[in-house]
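Private note to self, pasted from the team thread so I don't lose it. Backbone tokens:
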């Protein structure tokens, strides 16, 4: 009888152990929680041991967001999460239905929640992302194409895009130097230089350490009516010997080299790494597609100026401007992507992390931008007005619907003079073409 009892006891213990082990294996673990604040939203990220089934519920009076995670346990501290400048006042958790985890976000203001899961990639494991959209957030304003008056003295607007940010650190270099930090430092230094220069106004696309989807970046440049956008990066490559800076323009049909194509493919994965959440569809898609053609010629002209100036302070990976299909360059605004160097190269990473070298790069980019706009000042700008006062030649970029006769009338010059100066035999012109205007 005693022997039978021991056998039954062993069997019972084995059965309990198997159940416990199975339950432990099946549990999803919340291994970490991070919060990122962006201008129009707050992002809450849960790092998971594997994919999870979940539900969310928004409650009012007081404002709360309830997140129920199926068969999940919390293996992270909610008390240490930085909630500064966010609408989340407090995070708390509890067990529900025995094995489920409930996390409650106590909010100090109403938000619109948007949630989605991200599968594991080369940088992170599985994640659950909760975007808390500010309720006063609205869709972007329609793009308005206006013709500035010839006697305007407006500022030239330069949009500066520091690549990556927030969940997406970009490339990681020696001593854990992060691309997102390096390029943000260069971008802010460039913005300060432009701010001091009469006739220029910088607009920072990313104004802090937070994630932005690739298509949000050119959209912000368009909303700012930018004359040029610079997207600043510092990439990595599998060979540590790779070094040097490069300037890229958009090519949707092919790249300058296999390396350029590989680089663009890596940069275009940023949305997958950082997690692209809800964005508004572009209601002006047709207009943007038309304007994209117009931006290419200006981008190519600007790339030559920046490549020349950058080569004076940095070793160049390619001495001529390159082309590749970068998603961030698909814009109606003339746009360039600047690779300031290879953060995977130990020596170059050391220089890129130096405030002095960052300032030198910013100065070179500033001189390149200034040189380009002095050569081709946008109509209605202070630089165009100054050029006119000095008797210098003006230029005009063809927009959709314009005619040669209309342009001649606008600038009060003869049609024959415009044709002769630009070597035109007929009246045919194309969108994006830059014409010289007789003085």
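Design output:
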């Amino acid at each position: 009888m005693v022997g039978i009892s021991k056998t039954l006891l062993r069997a019972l213990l084995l059965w309990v152990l198997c159940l416990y082990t199975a339950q432990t294996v099946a549990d999803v673990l919340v291994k970490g929680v991070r919060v990122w604040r962006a201008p129009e939203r707050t992002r809450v990220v849960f790092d998971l041991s594997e994919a999870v089934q979940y539900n969310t519920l928004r409650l009012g009076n007081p404002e709360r967001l309830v997140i129920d995670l199926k068969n999940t346990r919390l293996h992270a501290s909610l008390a240490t999460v930085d909630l500064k400048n966010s609408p989340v006042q407090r995070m708390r958790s509890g067990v529900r239905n025995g094995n489920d985890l409930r996390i409650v976000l106590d909010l100090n203001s109403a938000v619109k929640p948007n949630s989605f899961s991200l599968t594991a990639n080369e940088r992170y494991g599985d994640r659950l992302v909760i975007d808390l959209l500010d309720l006063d957030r609205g869709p972007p304003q329609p793009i308005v194409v206006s013709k500035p008056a010839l006697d305007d003295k407006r500022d030239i607007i330069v949009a500066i895009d520091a690549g990556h940010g927030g969940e997406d650190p970009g490339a990681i270099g020696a001593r854990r130097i992060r691309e997102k930090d390096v390029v943000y430092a260069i971008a802010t230094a460039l913005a300060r230089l432009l701010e001091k220069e009469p006739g220029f106004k910088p607009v920072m696309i990313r104004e802090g350490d937070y994630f932005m989807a690739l298509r949000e970046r050119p959209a912000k440049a368009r909303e700012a009516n930018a004359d040029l956008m610079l997207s600043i990066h510092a990439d990595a490559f599998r060979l540590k010997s790779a070094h040097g800076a490069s300037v890229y323009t958009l090519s949707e049909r092919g790249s300058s080299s296999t390396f350029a194509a590989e680089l663009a493919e890596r940069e275009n994965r940023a949305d997958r790494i950082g997690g692209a959440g809800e964005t508004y569809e572009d209601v002006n898609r047709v207009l943007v597609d038309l304007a994209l053609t117009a931006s290419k010629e200006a981008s190519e002209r600007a790339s030559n100026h920046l490549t020349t100036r950058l080569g004076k302070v940095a070793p160049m990976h390619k001495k001529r401007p390159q082309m590749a299909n970068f998603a961030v360059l698909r814009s109606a605004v003339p746009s360039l992507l600047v690779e300031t160097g290879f953060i995977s190269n130990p020596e170059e990473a050391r220089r890129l992390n130096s405030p002095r070298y960052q300032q030198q790069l910013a100065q070179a980019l500033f001189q390149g931008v200034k040189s380009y706009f002095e050569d081709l000042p946008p109509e209605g700008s202070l630089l165009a007005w100054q050029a006119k006062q000095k008797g210098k030649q003006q230029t005009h970029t063809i927009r959709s619907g314009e005619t040669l006769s209309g342009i001649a009338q606008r600038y009060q010059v003869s049609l024959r003079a415009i044709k002769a100066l630009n070597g035109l035999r007929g009246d045919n012109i194309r969108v994006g073409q830059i014409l010289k205007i007789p003085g």
